[in-house]
Amino acid sequence: MNGDILYSIGELARRTGLTVKTIRFYSDSGIVTPTDRSPAGYRLYGIDAVARLDLVRTLRELGIDLPAIRKVVDREVPLQEVAAAHADALDVQIRTLRLRRAVLTVVAGRGSTADETELMDLMHRLARLSEDERRRLIDGFLDTVFDGLQDHPAFTAVIRSLTPELPDEPEVEQVEAWVELAGLLQDPDFRTSMRGMARNLATDRAPDDALGLPRILAEAVRALAEPTLRDGIDPEGPDAGPIVEALSAHYARIVGSPDDDALRARLATHLDGMNDPRRDHYLRLLAVVNGWPAPDSLAPALDWAVRALRARSGA
């Protein structure tokens, strides 16, 4: 009967394709135990050892560690559970390898004429692209900009819209954009500028406004000022008057304040704060990293609106 057949360690090696040394290691580890001993004291294994060793070899080839294999072959944990855990671990490794490939492609693409010191600096910055590093950097930036405002209803969507999310399989241009974006995230002057804008807008937001003042102002300026730019209307000329009146009336309704010179001066200050060129640059890089459509620059419209408002507010 097959159940009575016993194999020496050498015969077991020939049947399984494993080395004698490997089988002895698994035997000493308790993963495959001998059924009996020969009169000379050599280990003898039953037919079930062949099946166990085949399973062990397969699991080792899949990168599963010996403690987990022992639990599987001893039926302490289901094979499905171990497979799922290791599949998740492999997903992380695959994402890491893809990111490393993108990093090396970026560096290689700099060409032989690139300054080696700059390449080393770039390599160092790119190498710090672990998910934890990215998350700490992003959270630090957002915590500084929106300190005390995270629960403010006006800024929930704003914070989400300013959060970069590098994909698991980034393109070369996304890695390059992230490196540049990371520099902006750490720029203390940029953080201060963004924080001041957030504070001003949070102060002005009407309690019953469900959207968020930054987006409302950007949309209003784009809708009202951009056509005047195309038409070549002088922001300080008489033809700009109706545009300024519409913009200030819209702002007055949002914040619930009288539409007067003081309100127009305040609006001009807020729009001027939004018109930091680094903000535009941040939004362009953010779009690349997140795979969003490239945003149109609001800077020309903001410039026009600020000049027009200040010409009519006494500021």
Structure description:
- This protein has 315 residues and is mainly α.
- It folds into two domains: 2-74, Multidrug-efflux Transporter Regulator, Chain: A, Domain 2, CATH 1.10.1660; 128-315, no CATH class.
- It is built from 15 helices and three strands.
- Strands 1-3-2 form a three-stranded antiparallel sheet.
- A hairpin with a 5-residue loop joins β2 (36-37) and β3.
- α9 (172-185) packs antiparallel against α14 (277-290), α11 (213-231) runs antiparallel to α12 and α13 (261-274) packs antiparallel against α15.
- The longest helix is centred in the N-terminal third of the chain and has 30 residues, at 79-108.
- The chain is elongated.
- It starts with 6 loop residues before the first strand and ends with a helix.
- Residues 206-212 have low confidence and may be disordered.
